[in-house]
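Supplementary Methods S3. Input chains for the assembly prediction are listed below.
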Amino acid sequence: MGPLNDLKVLDLTRVLAGPFCTMTLADMGAEVIKIERPGTGDDSRAFGPHQNGESAYFMSINRGKKSLTLDLKSEKGREIFLKLVKEADILVENFKPGVMKKLGFDYESLTKINPRLIYCASSGFGQTGPYSSRPAYDLIIQGMGGLMSITGPDSATPTKVGSSIADIFAGVFSAIGILGALHNRDKTGKGQMVDVAMLDCMVAILENAVARYTTTNQNPVPIGNRHPSIAPFTSVRTSDGFINVACGNDLLWHKFCEVIERPELAKDERYTSNADRCNHMDELIPVLNDTLSENTTSFWLEKLEKAHVPAGPINKIGEVLNDPQVIARNMLVELMHPVAGKVHVPGTPIKFSETNSEIVAPAPVLGEHNEEILSKIGYSPAEIADLNQQGIV
Amino acid sequence: MGPLNDLKVLDLTRVLAGPFCTMTLADMGAEVIKIERPGTGDDSRAFGPHQNGESAYFMSINRGKKSLTLDLKSEKGREIFLKLVKEADILVENFKPGVMKKLGFDYESLTKINPRLIYCASSGFGQTGPYSSRPAYDLIIQGMGGLMSITGPDSATPTKVGSSIADIFAGVFSAIGILGALHNRDKTGKGQMVDVAMLDCMVAILENAVARYTTTNQNPVPIGNRHPSIAPFTSVRTSDGFINVACGNDLLWHKFCEVIERPELAKDERYTSNADRCNHMDELIPVLNDTLSENTTSFWLEKLEKAHVPAGPINKIGEVLNDPQVIARNMLVELMHPVAGKVHVPGTPIKFSETNSEIVAPAPVLGEHNEEILSKIGYSPAEIADLNQQGIV
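Predicted structure tokens for the full assembly:
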């Protein structure tokens, strides 16, 4: 049983940022009731690739949740929703700011019905500020938030991160905010609103770029896979790809030169200290590329590991998922989905010693838990059939 | 007062992953006591650039914490540490697995002294598995974890994300785990251990790449700033840089063609449906680059905004920090540091309605809170002076 197994989450989220947040809560044992539009459900149910008609994308970030279809604009739908709000601990939504207010379901309204409710709104720009009502997409936010301006092979090529990390960071910071508010509620009995913006999250994770800019007034630029102030700490070409090497100090640099059988580099005065190597990286990298291109990544990895020089491959996704460490950590989980069949989803990276955090259920098919959820709040089979026929659920 | 204002955190972390976790807890009001090596402290105190001798990097991720210097290998240092453990709610460390056990401070030992303790270990590969004892660096983990294999301008150029997001994700997932365990403790009175690995976190955030691989057995590759299945949803060249445009549907595509005064593109049968546009992106992108290169990013942004076509700039760090939305959300905070003077740090992306989450204190200078912390647990000024002279604090 996960640590949140006493909690009920109403999940009004779609696509990625919000669903990633509620996935994290579900992985820790919370009961997550995903409320979806009757007929089509979460937009991401349409995202390919599909397996027996079920979206692999949807299934990966909605594992362990329950699905209730509900037309929030119909009177009966609203009635059902408000009954669920009364019993909920947490509500998460990632609509554009204003949408929930229009529905009459903003925090101010819902807290009157349930003052214990923790209400988390995850959005592109946040509930306040001049851009608040703008639509947001991960690409746009990665660009506006500065991360693209420091990612890429060179300063002329600003590059998007290959996964939608503006969405994902909004999801995880939302989870942190919810759990912080939960601790406060465990003390006071009072819920509150948590407001998380994708753009804010991007600023929060710029790391040394902010310190560098505010101290020096220089805009950092993309520098490929190099480290700004340690060398060699970068990717080097091999005969079949690349290898990452991390020579954090002079001793490791000397060991590295031995392993690659270029002892003269360790003695070269251009490469004596870390500062020297940083200053001459443009000369050093081609030399290393030439040398390591004489053999394969796995050849060099084995030699460097023996010499205790930190190094690693640039794994493709298939290699990651078959890596012995990833398997040992249970980071790829097999689930049996009633329609899609056997599916694989990433595991949870939070490992508890006492309260299990194991993914046990697949993602729901659309409306899979309508009966279960509605009957629990007092609807009879006949009433449920009626709601169904009217298209309310 | 933040929601965690009743909690005491013992912080044994260094550099980034652990400090980012405890920063999040400090931002939410927890009292974070950072235990540092006497003399030098956290390695990151040496990371440039410096301001009046204080590291801008260190100051940004250690704001709001207290610093206690302590030699954990000395007998008296250990005695002090164990006194602090007795009173602590949470302990966070990011040593290589095994280091805390060697010190006698592993979870099994500390839980005997304080069964309420929540002990979070953040490491490169986790406390278990074949690579557990290996050292980890962000670059190595981004490579091994697959993110580099899907980031970059083209499939020949796997690229590291410009900020150390393997570290940062380990920090935020650690915070989630700690807060999950905290809720469980609020119910049961029992603490537990939380084990978070940077590599696991990378697998957890690969997003659609895992679904795509497990469904199709094809390894995703870097595709620059394009979207894998929507077009045009990418960066386009302008006369002074780039602009990100996100035409999520046919209507937006038509509007976009109007704005850029290329209505014939909307009628071109190669670009009729989204699938058509995806299939002909290699032809379409140069056309868009040529057209938008005729004017500046800000010229196009203004026109596209008027037409409600989602678009955005690729902001440099200075532009991000001066953006009206970023300022409105208080995402750049000015603090007065006793030595460095005025410093700026990123704000917290978690905005609470009731319990403030404001950054109020700068990062500590090394050992700044020795007296305060030691006197609270019963040491007299004379004893503290003695500990100081012996180099224990």
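Chain B has two domains: 8-205+325-389, 233-315. The longest strand of chain B covers residues 31-36.
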